[in-house]
Design brief:
alpha+beta; 5-stranded mixed β-sheet
Length: 500
């Protein structure tokens, strides 16, 4: 079986936990009921003296002398040696029998000295630690923890050299361990939450997913493990909107070349100067717009020439003819003149209101008729027993998410008592490539949160409603603190003071 690799946070948390257990809870038989840390207490007295720079005595010298800014190490006894050599400091004591080698670095609290087993007599060696001080607290701890962990994994019970002895966890390491343990709570919660959602998707029924698109919407019915997808709206919808979009196409070509000076026009008061500055990013100093505008004019000319053969309703054909003729006139005049501005463009579009409104009316009627027929058929297919529990998820981009046309139409077919909670408008940044999965995945969150809200917050209506709705759980508290930050800060200080 392949081994499962742990993430860095998970590995660090486990390693820290094991190291803390080894030093403070584990009681090896040779230590006679003591933990490794307890067995090192006798050595700490000498460590303390050295770390505070109070004394150190070299072999052959009658008196001790201060050792400032140094660390101390108790290395394992070198085989064959019975006395310390020059450069080592003899502490005049033995490490506890069959216990450990104490390791300390300058600046570490003595209670955090790590312990490793060493049955030999110990000597105390003083060494320079200026270089070691550049190592971060977390780096020192991880190095020590890794050494201890490696010895345990390899079955090693003795410290084989001085470099294998590393410091135990300091306060920062213990804090890291504690915080990782807390983070693990939410990691576990998310893991189980996601697992529930993944399984719940399989049981969602009945559901209708609507993906808004240029053809009036792709509709999918999910019921009892089966799916049916189709576009129910006739081509009249797309044809009518296609012609009505012509002025927007022209605007999209010329907008970057507009002047940033807003003229005195009826719509000027509603324009924001900053928006105009950003859209008109090229300005009128170039004629690069001519070629793409002429190309779009060719597209409009082709549509105009073949409009009769499309067999549109007479009124729709007439309005479409008007839109195309006036659009082509604006293009030709702008190209001949070699310029345009907001005034000339608004003169062009101002005369199209009635024609565009006619096209929109035909598009809307085509959409209503197509969706009505489909919803009536699907209601019969699902049955009276299951239909009241129907969820409908409508996916759209933000610009069409408010009062979305499909949402308005389908709502009238839903149970009035559940329509507000079972009709889900889901705006997306871009229309997804897999609308069914995106819709069901989000719906699964909603459904499981509906149940969780009442079980997790049975006595708090506001929090329950926030969990089961689009409002964030922190929203009300943030609004409260922003409304009265002084009061909120005082309340926080009092709470912290009480806890301390």
């Amino acid at each position: 079986m392949d081994e499962v690799l742990l993430g860095l946070e998970d590995f660090t948390a486990r390693l820290l936990s094991w190291t803390l257990w080894w030093n403070t809870e584990h009681r090896p038989a040779p230590l006679r009921g003591r933990t490794p840390r307890q067995a090192c207490r006798a050595a700490e007295r000498v460590v303390s003296n050295l770390l505070t720079g109070r004394w150190a005595r070299y072999p052959g010298e009658p008196v001790a002398r201060p050792v400032p800014q140094w660390a101390v190490r108790f290395p394992a006894r070198i085989p064959g040696r019975t006395e310390p050599t020059r450069g080592e400091v003899w502490g005049g004591h033995h490490c506890p029998p069959r216990t450990a080698t104490a390791v300390a670095l300058a600046g570490l609290p003595l209670p955090d000295v790590g312990c490793l087993r060493d049955e030999q007599r110990c000597a105390v060696r003083v060494f320079d630690v200026e270089r070691r001080r550049k190592v971060s607290t977390r780096g020192r701890f991880l190095g020590a923890a890794t050494a201890v962990g490696a010895m345990a994994f390899l079955g090693t019970t003795e410290a084989t050299s001085a470099d294998e002895s590393k410091p135990g966890p300091d306060s920062a390491a213990l804090e890291l361990q504690a915080r990782n343990a807390i983070f693990a709570v939410d990691t576990g919660t998310q893991k189980h939450y996601d697992a529930l959602r993944a399984e719940l998707i399989k049981h969602l029924s009945p559901v209708i997913v609507v993906q808004n698109d240029d053809r009036g919407g792709l509709y999918t019915l999910v019921h009892n493990g089966e799916q049916e997808s189709l576009h129910p709206v006739s081509e009249i919808f797309e044809l009518a909107k296609s012609i009505a979009h012509a002025p927007l196409g022209i605007y999209s070509i010329i907008a970057p070349y507009l002047s940033r000076q807003i003229p005195n026009l009826p719509s000027s008061a509603r324009l924001e100067q900053h928006d105009v500055d950003m859209v008109a990013f090229k300005g009128p100093g170039t004629n690069d717009w001519v070629s793409p505008l002429q190309a779009f004019g060719t597209t409009l000319t082709t549509a105009r020439q073949q409009l009769d053969n499309a067999h549109l309703p007479q009124e729709l054909e007439a309005s479409s003819t008007q839109i195309l003729d006036i659009a082509l006139k604006f293009i030709n005049e702008s190209v001949q003149r070699g310029s345009f501005d907001m005034k000339s463009f608004e003169n062009f579009t101002g005369g199209l209101n009635d024609a565009i409104s006619t096209n929109l009316r035909y598009a809307a009627q085509a959409q209503i008729d197509g969706v009505d027929d489909l919803m009536k058929r699907w209601r019969g297919k699902v049955g009276k027993e299951d239909w009241p529990g129907l969820y409908i998820v409508v996916l759209s981009i933000w610009t069409t998410s408010a009062l979305n046309q499909n949402s308005i139409i389908v709502k009238q077919f839903m149970d009035p008592a559940k329509a507000d909670s079972h009709l889900i408008d889901l705006p997306t940044a871009q229309l997804p490539t897999d609308p069914i999965f995106v819709a069901l995945d989000n719906l699964a969150r909603i459904v499981q949160d509906n149940v969780a809200a009442e079980m997790v917050f049975p006595a708090d209506r506001k929090l329950a409603d926030a969990l089961k709705g689009p409002e964030d759980l922190l929203a009300q508290e943030i609004l409260h603190q922003l409304a009265c930050p002084y009061q909120s800060k005082n309340a926080t200080k009092k709470a912290i003071g009480a806890a301390l």
